[in-house]
Design a protein that fits this description.
globular, alpha+beta, 20% strand, two-stranded antiparallel sheet, five-stranded antiparallel sheet
């Protein structure tokens, strides 16, 4: 069984986001979290689970990117585009982690060391749109353009 068959497209993509994918596979084969540095293909927007879950419910399914959670530590990590930092300047509930910040990740579809993907990476590189995420954390939540008030 090859790596793609065992883990799936999301895991292949996630491992490929790190400069040393073999270290990611080695960690997962040992049933431990893989340490993947941000800044190559995405940045991390961090929130609490308490604030993140209501925001997550406001994001339409087709606009959801990968989100990793540790419910016991009340932490959620949203994978966002590299240029997303400015979009979150006024969103107090989100903290942008700098490039090179390490995210400890399980493979998709598995809980490991209390960590689990709320929305798995799908292998396409799709990330959460910063404008959609910022709006979801806002008081009115995200609205489709057709729903916006005139």
């Amino acid at each position: 069984m090859n790596t793609t068959q065992r883990y799936g497209a999301g895991d292949v993509w996630l491992a490929g986001c790190y400069t040393h994918p073999a270290l990611v596979w080695k960690a997962w084969h040992a049933s431990t979290l893989a340490e993947i540095e941000s800044g190559t293909r995405w940045l991390i927007a961090e929130s609490t689970v308490t604030q993140g879950m209501p925001a997550a419910a406001r994001i339409p399914e087709e606009q959801r990117g990968p989100v990793l959670m540790d419910p016991y530590a009340n932490a959620a990590w949203w994978l966002v585009p590299l240029d997303a930092a400015e979009e979150f300047a006024d969103v107090r509930q989100l903290h942008i982690r700098h490039a090179g910040w390490t995210l400890r990740c399980p493979p998709t579809g598995r809980e490991m060391e209390r960590m689990q993907w709320l929305w798995d990476p799908d292998g396409t590189g799709h990330l959460t749109d910063p404008a959609v995420l910022a709006a979801a954390f806002g008081p009115g939540g995200y609205r489709h353009p057709a729903e916006a008030p005139a």
